[in-house]
Give the backbone structure.
Amino acid sequence: MKKTWLRDYIIKRLLYAIFIAWAVLTITFVLLRVGPTSPADKYLANLTARGQDAAQVVAAIEARYGVDIPIYEQYINYIVNLGRGDWGWSLSTSMPVMELIKTHWIYSFQLIFLSSIFAAILGILIGIYSAVRQYSKTDYAATFFSFIGISIPNFWLGVMLILLFSVKLGLFKVYYDTGIPLLSLANLQQLILPVITLGTGMLAGYTRYTRSAMLDNLRKEFVRTARAKGLPERTVIGKHVFRNAILPLITIIMFDLGSIVFGGAYLTEIVFGIPGLGQISFNAIFADDYAVVVAVTVISAFLILMINLITDITYTYLDPRIRYD
Amino acid sequence: MTNRLKNIKPIAQKVGSTKNRIFITVIALIGITVLLDIFVVEKIFNPLTYLYIALGTLLVRYGIPLLYTSRRLIQYYWQRASKNRLAVSGLAFILFLILLAFIGPLFTADPTAVNFEEKNLPPLGFTLEESVYDLKTGQFITNTITGVGEHPLGTDDKGRDLLAMIVSGARVSLQVGLFATGIAIALGTLIGVTAAYLGGKMDNILMRFTDIMMTFPFFLLLVFIVFIFGPNLALIVIVIGLTGWTGTARLIRSETLSLRTREFIMASKALGASDRRIILSHLIPNVISLIIVIATLSIPGVILAEAALSFIGLGDPNVASWGMILKAGQQNLDTTWWVAVAPGVMLFLTVLGFNFLGDGLRDAFDPRSNV
């Protein structure tokens, strides 16, 4: 019984994901075509200014972008090329977009990875402590600081950290140094401020979720039973309460990865000058480099979709009590 | 029985007349503010003004009578909410911000006026050491600049008054926050209530659509749309409003599902009320507390999204917004640090204020919690 509905559910979610992936591609394509200025216009203005023949330039650019063929063929080409891994040519950096992304994704990844771990571990620990000692001074302090944490705009927090620790105290570098090898202590050290910047919001969120999930479960009957059996408090909290509270938390952490982290990570990269996907997309926006903006948007959207899909499926699989029809 | 009915009529008339008076006063007030806004403060009739008027009219038509008829209930909830000091301080800050945004521009300087004579002025009570090349002696000398009363928050590297820029940013943030949330909440409520009330196939279609919209990565889409069509405040508001309704729709739907089978809905159906009437005057008023809480808690997200857009250089270049000031401030962090501090503090306090108020309201509306 369980297996059939679970399979149906997974198939349904997969179909959604495929539909949305297609929608993302189509919407970006349509927006690119109906937008007030095409990439050709901008480069036409540039090249004619250097004294080249306008008609020739237009033909060359249109051929380059593949806009001299009927619109449905353009659409098919667009999707086929993206599928093949041919993401176009980045005009501002003079290299294939795929190449650009291959060299830069690791910077985004290390930031997101470290911040998530930092936030999840610390958030869960503080949340548990806060719930076990409900209404103590520590609990009040944790609640208050988590409120501040979820309200502070993370890009401003980043700027303030730079102002305090880099500009005034001189403890850290103002900008991220790409010359330092990725797997080194020096790299870890220069990632401290970015990780705090990106992690604070998540940390506050996880603290709040853990605390409320723990409190919900602490009131349950089985906790009283466990205590009546004479189990040590450690076991009651660690095995009985925490195990029940952790499951929804995993989903929240995963969903966070999908939505908040991407926006937040990109902003953090821009603040600290970390050359990840957010930074290259930021530079591309200023240089009107359409191919890069499209690529980063589409890749991030696909990643978010995939993470959400995996989260949904694992969650349904792990918790037999949940049923989605 | 007849006696009681006789007594009710005059009271009802009285209520009606006071209601009318309040209605007219409020319309006049909104009219004056809109006119003030168009002709005195901004002097441009931008697309947002249309939204302004539309939402204002909706609020007056549906919101004010509802608030008036349920004033006893509001009093009761206010008593509960006012015990929460954080919620009250949040509300106080929001009211201050609204005041600042509305009448602030009348008292502050032009936020776009560039004046290089007065650049890099620190806030009142602070000083800035600046080394200047002295033409007479041919040496670098250290000048100490002190803040002046004319620019209480100081000026930026182009000599623009920071206070004026902050006030202008408050307008932007509030406009975006309130309008986009207004659109999103209106859409979400309508979709949620309709889905729950009609049920069956309609419910299925609407909720599948909501599910799909929910998984769509909208912040990326927003960045992309603004990149393609160029930065424009009205565009940002409309895109956020048209895409941000999914959470509201789900919450409102689940709340309405339990209302649908209640006796008073059955009764109005039996009396021959139309679907439209049941939805508008029975279902929506009963979920209004939930709507208020969702609205209060979703405004900060919208404000932050706009600030983030401005911060990455996709904000409307015609108005100074907090995100934009912050970005400019970051570039001169070693000298004019106050330019980066002030807009962030305002942004932070605004978000905090809405979060405190929303949390307090949620507790006050929740019958299970004893505040």
In short: Chain A has a mean pLDDT of 81. The interface with chain B takes residues 16-17, 19-20, 23-24, 27-28, 31-32, 35-36, 147-148, 150-153, 155-156, 159-160, 162-163, 167, 174, 258-259, 262-263, 266-267, 270-271, 282, 285-286, 293-294, 297, 300-301, 304-305, 308 of chain A (CB under 8 Å). Chain A has 14 helices and two strands. The two ends of chain A are 13 Å apart (CA to CA).
